[in-house]
Amino acid sequence: MTTSKGEWAIGIDLGATNLRGGIVDRAGRVVARDAMPLGGDKSPAAVIARISGLVQSLRRQTSGVVRAVGCGVPGIVGDQDGVVFSSPNLPEWKDVPVRDLLAKTIGLPVVVDNDANFAALGEARFGAGRGHHNMVLLTLGSGIGGGIILDGKIFHGDEGFAGEVGHIVVEPDGVLCGCGNRGCWERYAASQAFRVFAERLPAEERRALHAASGTTLEGLTPELMARLADAGNACAVELWRQFGTHLGIGIATILNVLGVTTFIIGGGIARSFDRFIGAARESVLAHTYAHHEKKLVLIQAALGDDAGIIGAAVAALP
Amino acid sequence: MTTSKGEWAIGIDLGATNLRGGIVDRAGRVVARDAMPLGGDKSPAAVIARISGLVQSLRRQTSGVVRAVGCGVPGIVGDQDGVVFSSPNLPEWKDVPVRDLLAKTIGLPVVVDNDANFAALGEARFGAGRGHHNMVLLTLGSGIGGGIILDGKIFHGDEGFAGEVGHIVVEPDGVLCGCGNRGCWERYAASQAFRVFAERLPAEERRALHAASGTTLEGLTPELMARLADAGNACAVELWRQFGTHLGIGIATILNVLGVTTFIIGGGIARSFDRFIGAARESVLAHTYAHHEKKLVLIQAALGDDAGIIGAAVAALP
Question: Among residues 72-91 of chain B, which lie with CB inside 8 Å of chain A?
């Protein structure tokens, strides 16, 4: 399957419940892949051991030379030292020197970064962002992840905190967020948004939505809302429009700060791209300079779950 | 005053009504300065002729070698070509190749950029931002100007549109802005903010403020509100707190996007720095990661009106 002349890196994507990895060549192709559940013990030592095991398993699949390993972590990662400052999904992880721990265990050079940053790099080099020097990847799932590419490289800010866009305030005194603040963007443009919008419907429409969906507000997932919209439910169509409008407000903010006009939309909710992107585009243009109308690019991510693996591997290749 | 061994550049700051310039050395010192009114004819040709006249006048003040000219313009400037795309204060200016026109007239190398960008560079190199690789300058006046410094250099985004932060949305469906949108940041954290806050006061407090200030809502300028606060007017103190809170929301947004934690506050309203900065800091921390508490730096600009001249000259020096 692979040649011994190849030069590969291994990309690892550490998710909330699964660990996925792949061998990636310089052209961004995944030539082998593997995955395993993360397991119950999420202590740094246990997870590092599992990542190491996945790397060994992947190396056995190739006769070529694996040069390095890149590992994406869902959390804040110092770009200089590969230390994971914190991770919402891995509450025990505080100031864990993942890069150094992994390098020692695996015996290869290791780079560690935030998972959305690696996904952004993957999309920028080999996916929907090709040809754009500057771009922002937004991953829409349970929250909003952000990865910023400037001049073709991941932009980190002072200590790896760049792109933490989910908590941009779009509605002061708005809906309470898990972070303790109110009105955060990811309450209005990620999976819990429909519950927020449904709560604001007139009682009659809310009852009708309840009847059509057969679920409570909590059950109004993007998947269910997609099915309802496809079945012609006008309320669902309208709530996807509201989703797009709120997505657009945050994108406009990022555009006004960074002056970057290319946005790649990924994450599970991007499957409903066509349902919300029209309203999102309108909303971005309503909140930025008219000039951007010609330049604004909102595209669906192209690499799916592979983006993070590809980006991690590409970043690791010397 | 100057030595013939000196190496200088001329920095020009093109304002709404005045043209100011200075000869600046490599250490960021303004060794000579001059100013003139912009005059009634604001066509590109007339303004370029005036800038050229100011440059000649400044050159006569030195026996040393002026190497280059930097010119800050209040508008969107392409960073690659020095073309002024548009300027709110100079409505006739559309796609004016200021850099090339000036270079031809003056016979020296010219760099042109947005005025807030040059002011940010001046503060970063020789003012309040010294020692910070990454920083954002916010100039609070009739609007909010932004200049972003990353790795010690002006960051431009795709076409010079970075740092157009005044129109970040902080209140969807909020107060109408001159740009035609609603809820823009500069309605709540620049000179017109007090009018907005006063309109929301209970009728009784609004009447008391009217009596204390002797003016209508339109007359509630930052200068007047500063005098009222100094005189112990509790309502004025409270409105400065609201000003700080809204300033902080926008700063938090920029922090969450860029991951940059150093903000320099300039512009005329920065004279009231102590009146609003406590509330601003509280508000930034309420809307960002708790981690930033130790890192967040909000400082008053140090160079005043010279920042733009110094930054323009420094950018021009080869």
Answer: 76, 85-86
